[in-house]
Amino acid sequence: MGETMVVLCPAPGEPLEHAERVAVSVGGAESNVAGYLARLGHRAAWVSRVGDDPFGRAVVRHVAAAGVRVDQVSVDPAAPTGMYVKDPGPEGTAVHYYRAGSAASRMDVDTLAAPGLAGARVLHLSGITPALSASCRALVEHAVTDRPLVGALVSFDVNHRARLWPAEQAAPVLRDLADRCDLVFVGQDEAETLWGSADPMAVRRLLPGPETVVVKDGAVGATVLCRDAEPVFVPAPRVTVVEPVGAGDAFAAGYLAGLLRGLDPVRRLRLGHLVAAQALTSSGDNAPVPPWAWFERLLAATADDWSSLDLTGARVTT
């Protein structure tokens, strides 16, 4: 559940102010996770709101094309679909958001009331949604506290966006929301920025509530900290990075796919890394994924073989 927007992007390396043409695509953290889960063979639905405009129809069509159910997306005739624009430059790519007052920012506590969502095994949320508006924050609080999807594991990616709210404002809210969830994903860098947590154990102490906390440390690897169990660290394989945007969503989808398939913590982290590798080597927010047999082979690798895994220049797709 969350907002997905239209993305405008000039040619690679071309500053926006000099661009004569832009490419139109679609991007959203939560729908990215849903798309990867669908491509990994799971049934996924995206819950959101779009404007009654061409951008909204493009967003819904794009998400549906990934195999994701979109029947729980409502159309708001009084608010536009959100948009962001990428601005490539020598220091990296800047992003300009045009989402204030968007249709998705008008989601409220009734958003998860649809009977079509009954029976969901996982509800995935992110820290982006509560920053959109007061009603969106109330919706996320409702989702993690009242648990309207009975029996669903609540997954939460902290996903702090400094452009939406500064760290000092976001930190207590995101900590409170995360601590009420079952599974939390957080980057080591954002945990340090938000809460001053210098390592995974410090994050775990800060978030005692969830059954599982996954701390991601970029190209280094990821650590899963389950209650009443020893921490498990799995290094990330080497890849050639084309575009880092969307890699965190891909990792979350891979980990969740491993959870849904009943894999052990090591293989869940490995699957997260392998799906993230596909995103890192793609220029779009959503990359194709290899056949499941490719994943199975690498999930079964010995610890030594995994530690030396190099996917540089060896991206496998369908």
TrEMBL record:
<dbReference type="InterPro" id="IPR029056">
    <property type="entry name" value="Ribokinase-like"/>
</dbReference>
<keyword id="KW-0808">Transferase</keyword>
<dbReference type="InterPro" id="IPR052700">
    <property type="entry name" value="Carb_kinase_PfkB-like"/>
</dbReference>
<dbReference type="GO" id="GO:0008673">
    <property type="term" value="F:2-dehydro-3-deoxygluconokinase activity"/>
</dbReference>
<comment type="similarity">
    <text>Belongs to the carbohydrate kinase PfkB family.</text>
</comment>
<feature type="domain" description="Carbohydrate kinase PfkB">
    <location>
        <begin position="13"/>
        <end position="290"/>
    </location>
</feature>
<dbReference type="Pfam" id="PF00294">
    <property type="entry name" value="PfkB"/>
</dbReference>
<dbReference type="InterPro" id="IPR011611">
    <property type="entry name" value="PfkB_dom"/>
</dbReference>
<keyword id="KW-0418">Kinase</keyword>
<protein>
    <submittedName>
        <fullName>2-dehydro-3-deoxygluconokinase</fullName>
        <ecNumber>2.7.1.45</ecNumber>
    </submittedName>
</protein>
